[in-house]
Design goal:
The protein is mainly alpha-helical. Helices cover about 60% and strands about 0% of the residues. Bound molecules: zinc ion (2 copies). One zinc ion (ZN) binds near residues 158, 162 and 241.
């Protein structure tokens, strides 16, 4: 809720005219409580979990022939019913864990100082903070994920997320309830270290999930803008982690590739890429290669 009765009051307080975006924010948020604004995340997450995988599903069913070269594991095809079942499982978790977690975590948002006030942050401020959030999340998630691949963590918790050896968009948030809670920590750490505006926080929560859905989509499209982000892992990178499954000691990072490179946990993936390149060169561009994808890999780095 904003401490101004009118746009004029707000302009007097910040010493200049409001921008169009600020006027819009004033009109929308002035009479709404900060708690209510924070809870918008529940709606945004619901929309992201529903609509973004639906776009992938739509493309898959309508353009299946055209996009098959970009499917990472083309031999695996889940039916519409499989997709629907996965979505219902995710929604059950959403209602029982994700939603309630949002409802009760507001005091922590208050404590770290996420603001709803005017002026709005500049685009540069928003982008800089989002970069920090992604870097902090990636590093923390890497270590938690790696821990979850220990015997206890995998058997008790992480195994659920790995039920999909050829992931689909809907399966991005598909996980044990404990994993959903634990992986909330890396998402929260960035904003705790560099607190920003509520709009930046909304964007962060939505973009992180959209990124997770892309990396679980099962498709590696060459035209996505994420291809231009330095050290970005992407769908092929994380798909390999699922393909190898429980024994995987490769590709733990959620967003970027540098952690796996630094800590030496990308050897299996790099070996697979090397083998695929050699096979491709050997076959002189024979398209048959596309159908083999991860299966052409001799082994994951199980020896690590
Ligand atoms: Zn894993
Ligand atoms: Zn995954």
């Amino acid at each position: 809720m904003l401490p101004y009765a009118s746009v004029q009051d707000a302009e007097t307080a910040i010493g200049r005219s409001l921008t169009a975006a600020e006027t819009l924010w004033f009109n929308y948020s002035a009479t709404k409580s900060d708690y209510f604004l924070y809870c918008h995340n529940i709606l945004f997450l619901f929309l992201v979990f529903t609509l973004v995988p639906l776009i992938y599903l739509f493309i898959e069913f309508v353009f299946s022939k055209n996009i098959i070269p970009y499917k990472i594991q083309p031999k695996v095809k889940l039916s519409f019913a499989d997709n629907l079942n996965c979505y219902f499982d995710v929604m059950r978790m959403f209602l029982l864990v994700v939603g309630p977690l949002q409802l009760v975590s507001y005091p922590s948002i208050q404590m770290i100082g996420i603001r709803t006030s005017l002026p709005l942050p500049s685009l540069l401020e928003i982008i800089s903070q989002l970069v920090v959030y992604f870097l902090v999340e990636d590093f923390t998630n890497y270590w938690i994920h790696r821990f979850l691949h220990g015997k206890w963590g995998y058997e008790k918790i992480h195994k659920v997320h790995h039920e999909y050896t050829a992931p689909i968009g809907f399966a991005a948030p598909y996980a044990h309830w404990a994993e959903v809670l634990i992986l909330g920590i890396p998402s929260f750490l960035g904003p705790a270290m560099v607190p920003g505006h509520m709009i930046t926080f909304w964007l962060w929560i939505a973009l992180r999930q959209i990124e997770a859905i892309e990396t679980h989509s099962g498709y590696d499209f060459p035209w996505t803008f994420t291809k231009y982000i330095p050290f970005y892992g992407g769908a092929d990178y994380h798909d390999y982690h699922h393909y190898v499954g429980g024994q995987s000691q490769s590709n733990f990072a959620s967003v970027f590739t540098y952690c796996d490179y630094i800590y030496g946990t990308d050897k299996g993936y790099r070996y697979q890429k090397k083998v695929l390149r050699q096979l491709r060169d050997g076959l002189n561009g024979d398209e048959k290669q596309n159908g083999e994808s991860h299966a052409a890999s001799a082994q994951d780095n199980k020896s690590e």
